[in-house]
Structure formats: C-alpha cells, structure tokens
Design goal:
Helix 6 crosses helix 8, helix 8 crosses helix 10 and helix 11 packs antiparallel against helix 12. The protein is built from twelve helices and five strands. The longest helix has 37 residues. The chain is mainly alpha-helical.
Length: 320
C-alpha cells in the first residue's frame, strides 16, 4: 500500500492496548535482564521463550513468541477502537461491495477461528486498507479510485488478509523486542565504557537498514504471493493484480522507475519497507502461473470440498 501497513502496525502498538502488550512482553525489563546476565546469557534465556514457526503457504522460518489467541484479542480491541473513532461510510453499494469481496476471500482463507468483519472508512484521501489479527478488515474509500474493479479490490483485500494469516504483525513485534534488547545491551556497554559510542550508532544503523527493512520487504512479498493465491481461489483472475499495481505506481508500465514516479519511488529500494513498484510487478507476473492453479474462471469461490488450506499452497516459488 502507498501508506505502509507497517505504519498501521506502529499506530496499533502506540495505543494503550499495544503499549500494555509490549510491556507484558518484556520491553520494560529488557535493560535489567541484559545488564544482570550479560549479552550471551540474556539472549540464551530469551531464545528459550520464543517460538519458531513455518509461515503458512511459504514455509519461511518465523520467530514469534506472542500466542495467536493474544494476538487476536489485541486485534479485536484495536479494531473496536478504530470503529469508534473513524467515520464509517454510509454508501450501501460500497459497503456491499467490500463485504462481498471480503467474504469470498475469507471463505477460502480457511480460518474458522477468525470471526471476519469488514468495515469501510470514509476517507477519500487515504489510499489504504488493513487487516488486523482475527480477521478484522478495514478499507478506506480513497483506495477505491485505484482498485476500480472488483478484481482490483480483491487484490488489495487478498494482500491485507494475507498479512493477518501469515501473522506478520506478531512476527514484527517479536523481532522488535529482540532489536530493543540488542540495542539496550549495546547502550549499556557504551555507558560502562565497554563499547565505543560509534559502535552503538553503527549497530542501530544496521538494525534500521540491514535487518528491519529487508525483513519487512520479505513480508510484503509474501503477502503479495499469498494474496494472489487467495484472490484466485476466490474466483478472481490473478492477472488483474498487475494492472492494479501499475495504477498504484501512478505511471505507465514502461515508465515505472524511470522518468515517471510517485514521490516514494525516488527512495532506493534497499531503504524502503516495500519492494519497488517494478520489483513487485515483476514478482507478481512470475507468480501468476502458480496462482492460476487455484483459479476457477467461473467467478465462484472454490467449493468447500475443494478448499485449499493456506499451508497446503506449498513453498514460495522463485520470482524470475
């Protein structure tokens, strides 16, 4: 999305609910753990509390130490807060469209423990959508001028729902805590004179560029792939994802990344939390044959007897 899903996650954890969760997960005591036990012992103890998972649909290794039940609970609370504060769209046709497309994708997502809800936020200036844990989906009206078609909307909703299915929010939060501990430990060493301040600065820079941002780009690509499979399983032609992302770029295809670019496109890809427009489009085109395995051209969702659980989709194929 043009406004990063990562920003939505940051806003979520800036709420009182998110702050309490962060404290419960140990941010408050990280400094004490590190200084009392030393770096090696602290990391050893911390690793015993973490969980290693395989990302559904791609088999990518994930480090997540927040339970899915807790993640869903936080997602529901955050969604309720959004609905209390956001101006909800009253247009019945728009609401029906969002719910129809969302339900078709949710039907093939095979997450019965998610109690799916779909909301439309009346904000024509915001080109975005998000899905919080537990299947709580919101679409801003501003993105409808870019989706244009039902398949374009399915591209967006499939992508956002994929973030929730892949538990990207919990994964980012878990990663964030590890980074906080590493940085606090390095700062403690610098304060004690054991580590030079310039080393600390280098560490923080490495975590900001060398670790965090590429990690987020990997999640974005994973959401593109799973979203493509979801929209195909729900009866939407995955080929339609390409023109949607071309419209999102704001450029003709042959000009993307050249003379024509939106403001964010001027940022080098290695400094961006999202793949560049052309990288994303090239990856999606390479993944379309994979997604077509799940496509039913009749336009109807995959019958229940033929549903593919997301983990059954198989490993992430190579893009190109």
């Amino acid at each position: 999305m043009s406004q990063s899903t990562n920003q939505q996650i940051n806003k979520f954890f800036a709420t009182p609910v998110g702050r309490r969760a962060a404290i419960a997960l140990g941010l408050k005591s990280a400094f004490g753990i590190w200084t009392a036990l030393g770096a090696a012992s602290a990391l050893s103890m911390f690793s015993s509390l973490t969980g290693c998972y395989r990302a559904p649909g791609t088999a990518r290794d994930q480090l997540i130490f927040i339970s899915e039940d807790k993640e869903i609970t936080m997602g529901v609370r955050a969604f309720r807060e959004v609905l209390r504060q956001a101006p909800l769209a009253a247009n019945p046709e728009v609401n029906e469209l969002i719910n129809r497309v969302g339900r078709r994708i949710a039907d093939v997502a095979n997450k019965p423990e998610y109690h799916w809800e779909f909301a439309v936020i009346h904000d024509d200036q915001t080109i975005n959508a998000f899905c919080l844990p537990g299947g709580k989906v919101a679409v801003f009206t501003g993105i409808l001028k870019v989706t244009q078609t039902e398949a374009g909307l399915a591209t967006v909703m499939g992508h956002e729902i994929a973030h929730a299915l892949q538990r990207h929010g919990a994964e980012r939060m878990s990663r964030s805590v590890l980074e906080q501990i590493a940085q606090l430990g390095a700062m403690a060493g610098a304060a004690a004179g054991a580590v030079r301040p310039d080393v600390v600065q280098g560490l923080q820079s490495a975590y900001g560029i060398g670790v965090s941002l590429p990690f987020n780009r990997k999640q974005e690509s994973e959401a593109d792939l799973i979203g493509l499979r979801l929209m195909a399983s729900a009866g939407y032609d995955p080929h339609e994802a390409v023109p949607f992302w071309e419209r999102m770029s704001g450029c003709p295809r042959n000009m993307i990344g050249k003379l024509c670019f939106r403001s964010a496109a001027a940022i080098p890809e290695f400094l961006s939390t999202h793949p560049s427009d052309i990288t994303r489009i090239n990856q999606i085109e390479a993944w379309i044959p994979d997604a077509l395995r799940f496509y039913h051209p009749s336009g109807t969702p995959t019958p229940p007897s033929e549903k593919h659980d997301v983990p059954a989709f198989g490993p992430m194929p190579k893009a190109g």
